[in-house]
Amino acid sequence: MFIKVISFEPMTDSFLTPTPNIRELQYISELLRSNTVPEITNLATAGPIEIITNYHGSMLYCAGGVSVYRYSSQTFNRYWHVTEPFDGLEENVYIMTDLGNFKARIQFFS
Fold first, then answer.
1. Residue 7 has what DSSP assignment?
2. CA 105 – CA 5 distance, rounded (Å)
3. Kind of pairing between the strands at 2-10 and 66-69
């Protein structure tokens, strides 16, 4: 699955995101270290960004050093757990990169 950044603006607010435990963090770190996509240096010109893995569906770890927090997720199962988004879904998210933090609108697609 991939994301496309539709719009974004810089953000100075601080926020908390879901945090994996040590074992999960080690697994996620290994996946991210094996990623060969160079760091994304401009969100405006970034093409489709591949989602490498996620944490409970709400924290997405993507290629190019991009992390996405789905704070307004629109996909839930019957237990109110965040589930995988469907093609074409648009959501408001927080994006974290080495460039800074951003409020953004993204679209999911395969």
1. E
2. 6
3. unpaired
Determine the residue type at 66: V
Amino acid code (one letter) for 48? P
Closest by Cα among 13, 15, 89, 21 to 51 = 89
DSSP secondary structure of 12-24: ----------HHH
pLDDT tens sequence across 52-79: 999 888 899 999 999 999 988 888 777 7
Instruction: Judge contact between 77 and 64, C-beta under 8 A.
Output: no
With tokens 């080495």, the residue in question is 98
Cβ–Cβ < 8 Å for 94, 103: yes
2 DSSP 8-state letter: E
Tell me the HSE value of 10 on the side-chain side, using a 13 A CA sphere.
5
pTM (2 d.p.): 0.87
Give tens-digit pLDDT for 19-50: 788 888 898 899 999 988 999 988 988 889 99
**H or E, element range at 30:** helix 22-33
